Here is the input.
Amino acid sequence: MASLGGIFALVLAIVYQWLKLEQDPRIKELEEALPGLNCGACGFASCLIYAEAVLRGETSPNGCRPGGEEATQRLSAILGVNAPGYTKRIAVVHCGANASVRKKRGEYTGIPTCEGAQMVRGDILCAYGCLGYGDCFRACPFDAIVMKDGLPVVIPSKCTACGACVKACPRNLITIEAFDAVDGLTAVLCGSHAPGKETKEICPVGCIGCGICAKLTQNTVFSIIDNLAKVDYNQATNQTNWELPRVKCPTGCIVQITEKDGTVRYHRKNAKEVLYG
Here is the structure.
């Protein structure tokens, strides 16, 4: 039996040496250059699979959102190529109604989560608004979301656009958008598709679909889709006047989000509100 075991082991060793595939040593370097979170934000199941795809040229080295520009630079250096441009992206919560302005249809006493409240249509009159129980806050692995007066506030400098909060929101109120370090980001903080009259009755900061923003931008950057103002960032240029639609918005749902020196502000019409810092 010992002789047979030795023979089989020798055969297996020979076959292994004959059939084994040589792995590019850069694979390990690429994997170590990544955060190792295996979050899937790059579109691949793990950092290793993403690293292999980058090495094969199947995807760009700027696809790691948590790693950001630093990871892009490191991957590009290992591959010996010029680093592609990196665009900072953040999560945007499309609701600006905090607990002080939300109108309720009753008191919810169930499991204190957005998912639990959504199962009974929530306790607020708006069927589209933020429920305020912080599922996105708890899902964020980077502490990039804080709760203020029942409304989640994203901290751009901490947000990696991993998408965990997007998946956590049962009302699909969160999207990932490009964020400019100087000009910030202008967004519509409302997700209601209810008719304008109905929205006006239940939410003072909701979009009423009046179309002023669309008229001011010739229905290109801003447009009204199903009673809700939408922004097509692909249509925006360096000459786009973001301030005019924001100032003219009658309910103030068009907001400029900025962060400077660790302070996050919402610029709503002519007012500036400190949300964090």
Q: What stands out?
A: The beta strands are 89-93, 145-148, 151-154, 174-178, 185-188, 222-225, 228-231, 254-260, 263-268, 271-276. The mean pLDDT is 91. The radius of gyration is 24 Å. The CA atoms of residues 27 and 52 lie 6 Å apart.
